[in-house]
Amino acid sequence: MQNHLTNAAQFLAMDSSYEEANVIVFGAPFDGTTSYRPGTRFAASQMRLESDGIETYSPRLDLDLEEFLICDAGDVSLSNGNTVKILSEINEVASQIIQDDKKPLMIGGEHLVTLPVIEALIKKHPDVHLLHFDAHTDLRDTYHHEKLSHATVIRRCWDLLGDHRIYQFGIRSGMKQEFDFALKEQHTYMEPFTVHSVKDIVAQLAGKKVYITIDLDILDPSIFPGTGTPEPGGITYKELETVFEVIKESTIEVVGADLVELSPHYDQTNVSTIVACKVLRELALLVAVK
Questions:
Q1: Into how many domains does the chain fold?
Q2: 174 in the Ramachandran plot: left (φ > 0), alpha (ψ -120 to 50) or beta?
Q3: Which residues contact 227 (CB under 8 A, 6 or more apart)?
Q4: N or C: where does the chain have the smaller number of CB atoms within 10 Å of the terminal CB?
């Protein structure tokens, strides 16, 4: 495991050893298929630097990072220029974490990095369901003739999971064919624009294993400008907090999670990075407690 990860400053209070930890945080610094503005490869390292600006305790969830055994294992040591090889390297790290009976919590990177984790998870949890929070559909079959792209990642996940296993929230951008794929053909469940139905959906998934992927551009760019493809009309941070509360109070089993698409250098105030840090704190607590 150590050979595949690079050393880095640790995220706030995530200082348990790999052996003792139940949740393993790792960065996947890849943005090789980014379609507009690159920079997500720097997200994990910048978040670690800024994490001292937040508390370990979440008053919203009434949970504290210091109560749990969480290891920030650093970033995956990735090759350069070969997308398939890079995804296999992420898959190898995620697979080892899962085989060791620990839960993966990944910091992207662009959204394509979700795919190799799902590929690893379904080997142990073939019935896993996906909760997807995003501004974009990510349901194209190809993007510029490529099957592997951050614009196709949820379609590739659908290839693995099939119908009635993917639940999308906050979606407000995509091709008409992608919206038809979800809303008319009902290959995925989609709630455009908002997250109001999360409580009902999570109730339907009671007792099931769930993976959570949060593309941070679900947040309105007035709140979160530090992303490669900002999309006006997003949700507020408080609305995202209601999602965390619903998940905490549910009976789903969270088997892993990720947050992706922070490009820190597009927000010189560092506020976007701090927002991402807080989302990571909440996600880590949910993965640990659920």
A1: 1
A2: left
A3: 216, 217, 221, 261, 262, 263, 266, 272
A4: N
Calculate what percentage of the chain has a pLDDT beyond 70: 98
Q: What gap in Å lies between CA 47 and CA 156, rounded to an integer?
A: 28
C-beta of residue 28 within 8 angstroms of C-beta of residue 108: yes
In tens, the pLDDT along 67-99 reads 999 999 999 999 998 999 999 999 999 999 999
Closest CA to 285 of 26, 16, 69, 129: 69
For residues 26 and 107, the answer to whether their CB atoms sit within 8 Å is yes
For residue 106, which phi and psi values (nearest 5 degrees)? -105, 140
The answer to whether the pTM exceeds 0.90 is yes
Give per-residue pLDDT as tens, 29-53. Answer: 999 989 889 999 999 999 999 999 9
Q: Residue 201 and residue 205: Cα distance in Å, rounded? A: 6
Q: Is 127 helix (H, G, I), strand (E, B) or coil?
A: coil
Beta-carbon contacts of 138 under 8 Å, excluding residues fewer than 6 positions away, are 111, 132, 150, 151, 152, 153, 154, 155, 174, 215
CATH classification of the domain holding 84: 3.40.800.10
Q: How confident is the model at residue 5 (pLDDT cuts 50, 70, 90)?
A: confident
SS3 (DSSP) at 192: strand
For residue range 125-150, what is the model confidence (pLDDT) as tens digits? Answer: 999 999 999 999 999 999 999 999 99
State the pLDDT confidence band at 247, using cuts at 50, 70 and 90.
very high
The answer to whether the beta carbons of residues 10 and 58 sit under 8 Å apart is no
* Domain that includes residue 246, residue range: 2-289
Question: How far apart, in whole angstroms, are the C-alpha atoms of residue 78 and residue 5?
Answer: 9
